[in-house]
Amino acid sequence: MKSFGVHLFFLLFLAAIASVTVQAFTGTYGINYGRIANNILSPDDVVTLLRAAKIKNVRIYDFDQSVLKAFSGTGLELVVGLPNENLRDVSANADHAMNWVKDNVLAYLPDTHIRGIAIGNEVLGSSDEFSGFLLGAVKNVYNALDKLKLSHLVQITTAHSQAVFADSFPPSSCVFKDNVVQYMKPLLEFFSQIGSPFCLNAYPFLAYMSNKDQIDINYALFLPTKGADDPKTKLHYDNLLDAQIDAAYAALEDAGYGKMEVIVTETGWASHGDENEAAATTNNARTYNYNLRKRLAKMKGTPLRPKSVLKVYVFAIFNENLKPGPTSERNFGLFKPDGSISYDIGFHGFKSSSADSSLLSLKVQGFLPPLTYILTFCRSVSSILRQNKAYL
Can you give the pTM of this predicted structure? Predict the structure, then answer.
């Protein structure tokens, strides 16, 4: 009788889970773990760094086994990526999609908390090299998850750049580009059926760099400014990120999917750049990311969707020394390659001091001898008081 009761409870529990729309992002603040570098911390050390920073939601751009193993048993929630170059194969063959899901998702569950799969990144809006394969890959991966009884645990998404929009200012005027609509509409239709959000990579830094004469940098950095008004909606915007997000909502509404949630899968500010990237400074990067944290802590939405609490993945954990392009591309990290902070927005670096490093290591292991604890604690407090740079 007892075993029957336990079995019945388990079935009811599964039914309750299945009735709830899966959410890959359960907090408001996440981070992107880019690894185009040859000098960054090991995945195990990255886990230590993230747990100390209390960042739970993490997004990677591939399905690296060393990362998936390092995240096992940590409680951190991970979105893995199916890279653009894999879309053709997975789109063309449902068996390939099934094998990919088995090898890179099912094999690591439940110990590694894989909560989402990002199918490609910024596929639409630039070249059409992979555009025709995106929807097929999305459907095949979802169907594989569904057959494996995982579709209630793992959410399917894809992230878009602002290149998918024809015009984003004022926000209410935003629509999808004509050459994007043919791919975007069926994708949105499928996402609306399975409850997936619209994922946007939104960079006020890039918008400012392209429109310095028209955009006040304070508006881009969440600093006091006169802001901007939308003449159609009569809504006022005091920062550029909110305006970019509401532009996405306007495009979705124009396409017939106004109820779809928008999640920011990338945003950040470069701390160093080339001569023509004068806005890429440590001070601006610190200001943007510190003010972004404050804005997210308020647990509020945008002017157009005030009740939809904003969720953001910051770009990125590290500066990535092997990324191509301008210098700014290699300097978006909140942390330097050794885990020390790039600038202070309230996180403690992995190697900010010997005392902090020792304390961090022992805290993660869950053990700290009493005398060591007292000495380390005193040194840490003394160091903090001397620095007097607390941002939290």
Answer: 0.85
- Domain boundaries, position 153: 29-335
CA gap 79, 81 in Å, rounded: 7
- Whether 329 is covered by a domain: the verdict is yes
- Both tokens of residue 17? 């889970």
Any domain includes 184: yes
Whether 266 is catalytic is yes
> Could you tell me the CA-to-CA distances from 132 to 62, 84, 89, 371 in Å, in that order?
20, 11, 12, 63
275 is catalytic: no
Evaluate whether residue 383 is within a structural domain.
no
Residue pLDDT, tens place only, 107-128: 999 999 999 999 999 999 988 8
CATH number, position 62: 3.20.20.80
**Cα gap 127→108, rounded to integer Å:** 34
Long-range CB pairs of 96-100 (<8 Å, 24+ gap) are 96/140, 97/137, 97/140, 97/141, 97/143, 97/144, 98/140, 98/144, 98/147, 98/148, 100/63, 100/141, 100/144
Residue 193 maps to a domain: yes
Per annotation, catalytic residue among 85, 129, 189, 266: 266
**Sign of dihedral through CA atoms 102, 103, 109, 115?**
negative
Report the C-alpha gap between 73 and 94 in whole angstroms: 30
> Which of these is catalytic: 77, 122, 253, 277?
122
Q: Report pLDDT digits (tens) over 342-351.
A: 999 999 887 6
Distance separating alpha carbons of residues 320 and 333, to the nearest angstrom: 7
